[in-house]
Amino acid sequence: MMLLSKEKGCAKPYNVFSNEEWCEISNVVPFKGNDIRVEILEKYHNKVHRESYEKIIDIDCLELLDKEAITTLQQDILKHMHKKEIVIETLPTSNVRIGQHHNFDTYHLWNWIKWEKEGKSIPPIVLGTDDAGIFATNIYNEYANIYCHLTNQCKLNRVDAIALIEKFDNNSRVYRFS
Whole-structure pTM over 0.85, yes or no? Predict the structure, then answer.
């Protein structure tokens, strides 16, 4: 298994192989003929195979799909989520600090807002906070960050920015756990 990281040099594999687990399995599993399940278990616990699983492989998603295809795929998934009424909880401060975003300019929320304005199906969105002690934030700060970005960087007028904030707030009341 791997720890994911933006930088290859920072990614570190960690070993999840357990010889004790394999011994326990080999005592319980009836080893018979050409049983694919046993073959998979043996490969999973085989040291040579385990080492090959732990190699870091660089994948540039743009080698697999172009930006247009990725956008289409994202929008299709969002449409499916909307249809199923699967809510998106977005954690702005946490996502920017530990995600692929260096600041709020590239934050995925702006795409969702833009696509919804274009008539695309976007599931309900709620704002949340991650670990307040780690990220030194609270729900008020999350709403304030979004509002400030909408009015300052996105140049949205205050009435429209407040309407979006109210929409997120209303969604949080509707879809809260209680």
Answer: no
